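Entry for the shared binder. Reason: the reviewer on the internal report wants the predicted structure included alongside the sequence.
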Amino acid sequence: MSEFKRIPPEQAQALREQAAVVVDIRDPQAYAAGHIKGAQHLDNHNIADFIRAADLDAPVIVACYHGNSSQSAAAYLISQGFSDVYSLDGGFELWRTTYPAEISSGDSQ
């Protein structure tokens, strides 16, 4: 079984440009206040649907607040059959300072 990889925002941005899926596991209020453009909000209520509908071989980047919780979520996705999973080092907070123009707010992606 493969393992997830930890990557900095610069590598995550390069993967986004290659159509990687970005998932945000922070709470709904934090997601609504601001998230990486195109990121899908994932929580315990919708993760099963996400897994069922996902391309298990497509790259997935998991973002949280600071890059800690995303590691557990990335490991979980690997355990569910995903083959190319990344945990965003520094999380959304580092992303926000690195790529301020790549932030969306509201519930929309």
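Summary line for the report: Helices lie at 9-17, 28-33, 47-53, 69-79, 91-98.
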